[in-house]
């Protein structure tokens, strides 16, 4: 089983490389993200999660040529309040604010509301997450998201997760957009109440009308303040 899992991970990494080399006529962008989160349990079945993060773009290419270099995209703050309705189901309400004008005066800051339902069993490697979002920026955008992920331990301290997420956005001022994301993540829980994570993510932006390829390297640190 361990050999089989390693083969899957290598195949996913190979897929990232193939997609990056191929589709040379489409726009391709390379990003990094850093995330810092901490979780705080409340009374009963309630909990709260807070997070800070930033995003930057290394490079953007079109038809194989560099069209823009490094630029910082945004800083963000986010918060989720979660009610654990049962052992399987968690219901959350979240708010998020992205500071974008600090780095590009042509862009507006974004405020986002999120309604979320997450289904996960301790006895199953699969998890499901459903989200509805309202994004307040130049235009109000409504977006639906469905994420399915498969997680397995590598050893006592390391685990990996393979996930894919489908997104669909609509707005009264813009045409609908569909997006698909594929991610491969590695997590380390060696330190008590502290988890370190590193992810590779590939995004197919607006693939029904004007396909763009985006590649992300995401690092994360999560602290559980329950103890």
From TrEMBL:
**Organism of derivation:** Gramella jeungdoensis
Q: What's the short name of a Pfam family annotated to this entry? A: DUF2490
In Swiss-Prot or TrEMBL terms, this protein is called DUF2490 domain-containing protein
Against InterPro entries, the record matches this protein to: DUF2490 (IPR019619)
């Amino acid at each position: 089983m361990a050999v089989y899992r390693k083969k899957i991970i290598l195949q996913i990494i190979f897929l990232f490389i193939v997609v990056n080399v191929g589709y040379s006529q489409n726009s391709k962008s390379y990003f990094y993200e850093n995330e810092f989160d901490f979780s705080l349990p409340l009374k009963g079945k309630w909990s709260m999660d807070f997070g800070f993060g930033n995003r930057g773009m290394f490079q953007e290419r079109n038809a194989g040529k560099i069209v823009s270099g490094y630029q910082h995209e945004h800083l963000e703050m986010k918060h989720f309040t979660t009610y654990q309705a049962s052992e399987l189901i968690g219901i959350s309400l979240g708010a998020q604010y992205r500071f974008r004008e600090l780095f590009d005066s042509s862009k507006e800051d974004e405020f986002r509301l999120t309604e979320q339902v997450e289904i996960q069993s301790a006895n199953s490697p699969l998890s499901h997450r459903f989200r509805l979002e309202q994004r307040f920026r130049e235009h109000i955008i409504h977006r639906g998201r469905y994420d399915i992920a498969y997680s397995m331990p590598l050893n006592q301290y390391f685990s990996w997760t393979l996930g894919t997420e489908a997104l669909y956005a609509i707005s009264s001022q813009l045409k609908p957009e569909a997006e698909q994301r594929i991610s491969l993540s590695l997590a380390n829980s060696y330190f008590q109440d502290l988890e370190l994570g590193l992810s590779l993510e590939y995004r197919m932006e607006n693939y029904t009308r004007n396909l763009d390829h985006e590649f992300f390297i995401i690092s994360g640190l999560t602290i559980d303040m329950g103890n």
